[in-house]
Amino acid sequence: MIELQQVVLGYQGRAVTSPLSGKFCAGSMTAVIGANGTGKSTLLKTLLRLHAPVSGRVEYAHGTAPRTAWLPQLADMDRQFPATVYDVVSMGCWPARGLFSSLTRRHRELVTQAIDRVGLSEMYKQPIETLSGGQFQRMLFARLLIQDAPLVLLDEPFTGVDAQTTHFLMVLIHQMHEAGQTVITVLHDNELVERFFPEVLLLGPDACHWGATQQVLPRYNPLGLNLVLSA
Ligand SMILES: Nc1ncnc2c1ncn2[C@@H]1O[C@H](COP(=O)(O)OP(=O)(O)OP(=O)(O)O)[C@@H](O)[C@H]1O
User: What topology is assigned to 1-66+150-231 in CATH?
Assistant: First the structure.
């Protein structure tokens, strides 16, 4: 579906990764891992075409980038924006209905179903600034469900989320994968990567590794240290 050919990621001509080659196949589910600043978010923004790579080529099947749903990092979201849960989730209908036309009955049904599915049935009218971290992520997942895009990019979806909600959202991601969507997720939790993600792309300052999780994950030492614990 998406092939990277010797792609170097970066900004204004300055590289932040080594050259990256490989494929995100249609329907695959990949965890993007690596230490802070190794270019994980930059990769997602490049796939969204918000930035051009410094060099190399990104090729799409049939020559066109697929419709894409994106969950940005929580830190990049404006949580003070004056909107309700319903307003934000209904934004997921924009690609289907256009920016300025009103919601049809079918769209309204889809919005309420998605809000119910993420467990926020009691919170339709709640201003988003009043939501907890976990409720906020559930709301954004409801919007992703409505978008129903062939390509789903998730940037640290479990930041600020408790274990129960993490498990709940992980099940939703798994269901997207089972429904045939291509899922690419930036994660810092190796246990979740090992349990749920068949493929891993490990970004490092000197080299990148891309392949089956059991082959790539053991190469990752997040602390870069051999810790010796003394009494
Ligand atoms: N808009 C920008 N302009 C210039 N440099 C940037 C920009 N955004 C990020 N960078 C730099 O690019 C590098 C990679 O950043 P990126 O956010 O992709 O890392 P990351 O792997 O997602 O890190 P983290 O795990 O901390 O979220 C960093 O050195 C960062 O400072």
Answer: Rossmann fold (3.40.50)
Report how far apart, in Å, the C-alpha atoms of 98 and of each of 55, 59, 107, 139 are.
34, 27, 12, 21
| Domain span(s) for CATH 3.40.50.300 in the chain | 1-66+150-231
Which residue's alpha carbon is nearest to atom 1 within ligand 1?
11
Compute, in angstroms, the gap from residue 46 CA to the centroid of ligand 1: 12
Q: Whose CA is nearest to atom 31 of ligand 1?
A: 37
41 Cα: distance to centroid of ligand 1 (angstroms): 7
Regarding an ipTM greater than 0.85, the answer is yes
Q: Which of 161, 178, 182 is nearest to 70 (CA)?
A: 182
Render pLDDT for 105-132 as a digit per residue (tens, 0 to 9): 888 999 999 999 999 999 999 999 999 9
